[in-house]
């Protein structure tokens, strides 16, 4: 061991850190930042005895490595280990992606800040019998202090390094080549021999590269659009039809016929999905040269006209100036008259001349403004002419058409199209293409991530091993240091995550405290380890939920500095976590730290009564004539305090008070102290503001936020009255806060000094933090120690790997019994012309040029890549890990104590979980917080779970169907779902199915709930529809229903996918499908066996029923569901289990008289 480590120390002169920037590093850093600076920063952040000299610090580090207890050498490259032509030096053999892992005992670990292991990421170059180490990165981690069991991890000892310390350089080089060439790749995860080939990483990597190339080719059909209208056009979710636009094409491009495109405009960062149709016979070719020439002619004409006006105005100005000077001289001569002249006459002439001079001066001012404005107009016109000439030159290879668009709508937010003018052609208009820009950017990032993963460019060296074999993950027992309250299993999960050598798995079903556990882990990492945490998820909503909970649990900790890459409010519109709110959250935390509880006392008198110096003196006894204790009035402290608060002496007040009645005394005293309170609050506010500014200023000079443990001392409160005043100041801050320069200053400092320690971004977002002109890339410039992928069950393999590369340790948190991943690409259906079809067409076009091998072409044609894109990464690993329920030696923890819902709902949810992971009622479960909800359909109205069976239409709805005359009704009352409205005059809203009878039933249930639960609030109810069309129909029914107050029209109505992660007191689930359907083509009811495969996914059903806390109401044609014997697949560690969820639910609820048949309800 000694010789091996000494070899590294002896080689420090050949360790090159200045040029060893990896290709990934170059793309991020360019030439602006040297790797030396990043290494120096890393050492500064992690070495206790850092001395600000890179050479000395590296030597110091190598000397510590000499004392390592365990040293392991890993080859983290997953495809090719060495290359014959290094990118660093030509004609050299480069062994890339080597990691030396050095683990230390507790004593040596004291030399590091909250770490026990050092990871040297390096390359070795062999050339001309010489070899060099090139350090790429140094990381510091907490790792289990034991040897890794995998045989591909080389345990370094003296014998293995004998060849490196030989005096024969040539022999040493040959030995190095032989040794390093024999070093196996740590994982086979990118080849078919992998133990975990179900992830298909090699195929996915290939797909991301081919899909990136497809998008590059697809991008060539981009064109530009300009609105050809007279005034601004606002577009939102409601489609606007028959709009005239100017379409700009390259001369080589064909005129598009019909598209569904995405419009994106860089200045507003908006994507607008548009349906438009271009009909060639209606197109008008626009001669843009003629328009430009005409506009240039108009500009030149205007210049000539305005130049003439300038000439005339200038002449007029010269004449005015002459008259002005004459009058001024005349006035001056009057002042020179001798005293014996007619004084009165002189003064009269002076007054008249002054008036004339003022009028001349005013006219001159106006003329100067007019001339200046004309000259400015002329200048602008000349600039416009130059721009037009430049535009004309650039447009010579373009063609322009006036086209009519079929329809236009914005999916995301309202946008405004300004009317076209020629100067817009210089900056381009709205970028249009069938090329999906957002999807292209996302998969470009995935392609880069997969390439980096294969090349060994990731933070945790054991990552690939952990993915290939999750049972190989080792754990150390780390004490959790967090003030956040956890139960036993939550605490165990947090400890496993912190002690894991790589990945940890947190299985957190609804209400089990998954987010609480995540917050405790973050609290430990930020406040104990003083390192950064990344929270990521497929959706912004999941990140918002985690941020909101963490903010609430740590609201008194100013050291938690949040940053989220996208400015987006949560469902309640509360917190935004971006650079504009950092200062607001920071100051709010200081307030909470100093005054954790807000007292609502309204009487000013009570504030004075709490003065510590006067706590033994009743205010009546002190202030009112009949109860005065004179010895107290002589107390200097009492007199000074009164003067400080009121501005007058106590004696002075008492003299005035003698003449008052007791009521008058009290009224006078109250008004006096009310004014004093306002004055004192203003004084405190100014004082607090100055202290905050000093704290912010100190951040500029230090790398750490000030120590808030002594915060109270910094603000120097001397009495409980000051504390009370401070509480009111806190309320005023929250009420009157406005964004200002101090927010900008704080955000700049936080980013520059790397004070941001809780970062949120989606799994496909750009991996950087940015403010203004400052941006820092997370992998290289802003290191992430711990990453949490929340709601991970919905994340694809590509999403997960894209972010896992960033962090030293990763926690995957979710519930694999919730919705699985769903990639944007779907399998081709009949007459489908979507992205998948276009991509396969691209593949077939390139089959002949051998750019895509035949076996890969077959893989694409069979659409196997769609299945691979949707492999449930989290579920697969969760079921694969050998689980020991209470063991620290596994990386997996399943939380089972569920606090969300009542027992009756818990029993229904439990059919989705295996025996050892079924939800349990916690010992500290408080059932009293769940109020009874009444649904009065005749019996057992307060049972927490109900089924409202809609298999048959009730009389009222059946009469409506008969009266429409748009459908053929054969006398049956069997219910149906639809692809068209019963009233065929209404517009079809979607291709997915809906059910008007169920929508009618849902509204009937809602009315019943409102009537029988007077304290019910709209925000306590959620309505989940199994299709998007049904959600829209229910919303339409609710909007036009005139028996509801407007507030009830705000009830949340959405799909299962969008409800994941939410919870409501009451949930109504609409299953939509019925026995029969109303066909959109034939317009009559058709009796047939229905496709109910949509309900065979137990995860989807589980999400729907597990959103309810207090009352769950299932609406659907249950008789049909039972007759069709809907089956669901439940994956277990022992294989697949087939269950019948509708049958199980029905039996349980029916046994408690909780089933209502709507057609029998009166």
UniProtKB/TrEMBL annotation:
Every DNA2/NAM7 helicase helicase domain range: 485-821
Cross-referenced InterPro entries: Coronavir_polyprotein_1ab (IPR050534), DNA2/NAM7-like_C (IPR041679), DNA2/NAM7_AAA_11 (IPR041677), P-loop_NTPase (IPR027417), SF1_C_Upf1 (IPR047187)
Domain (DNA2/NAM7 helicase-like C-terminal): residue spans on this chain: 889-1117
UniProt keyword terms in alphabetical order: ATP-binding, Coiled coil, Helicase, Hydrolase, Nucleotide-binding
Chain coiled-coil ranges: 310-398
Family annotation (SUPFAM superfamilies): P-loop containing nucleoside triphosphate hydrolases
GO molecular function, one term: helicase activity
Pfam assignment, any one: AAA_12
Gene3D superfamilies according to UniProt: P-loop containing nucleotide triphosphate hydrolases
Family per record: Belongs to the DNA2/NAM7 helicase family.
The protein's name: AAA family ATPase
Species assigned in the record: Spiroplasma chinense
